[in-house]
Design goal:
By secondary structure, the chain is α+β, with helices and mostly antiparallel strands. It has helices spanning about 10-15, 20-25, 35-45, 65-70, 100-105; strands spanning about 25-30, 50-55, 55-60, 80.
């Protein structure tokens, strides 16, 4: 006998789609020396909302434009598609040490 598990639609929607599928936002890795040239190249290839970031460029693109960027870009080393994202605040205890590192990594609060 097979047991059927009922999963709420909002849970399915959260786990069955990745961030890039919802937002069409990608990250292009590029060397810092040629970042401005790569931003111009992305715009020329059809990307929108192009914004420089640390070690790369964020941009929006429809699937057709994304394929064009992957095949025709000469300056971008790779394009990354974010699978998920979440807020991770930096929490410090009263001694100024990061609580997250102690809880997750199992490190001692004494130094």
């Amino acid at each position: 006998m097979t047991e059927t598990i009922i999963v709420p639609e909002r849970v399915k929607a959260f786990f069955m789609t990745y961030t890039y599928q919802k937002t069409k936002r990608y990250f292009a890795q590029v060397a810092n020396d040629i970042k401005e040239l790569a931003e111009a190249e992305l715009r020329t290839l059809g990307a929108t909302d192009v914004a420089g970031a640390y070690r790369g460029i964020y941009f929006n693109a429809e699937p057709q434009v994304l394929y064009r960027i992957n095949y025709q870009s000469r300056l971008i080393s790779r394009v990354l598609a974010p699978l998920c994202s979440f807020h991770c605040p930096s929490v410090q205890n009263h001694q100024g040490r990061h609580v997250l590192s102690r809880a997750v990594l199992g490190t001692s609060s004494r130094a």
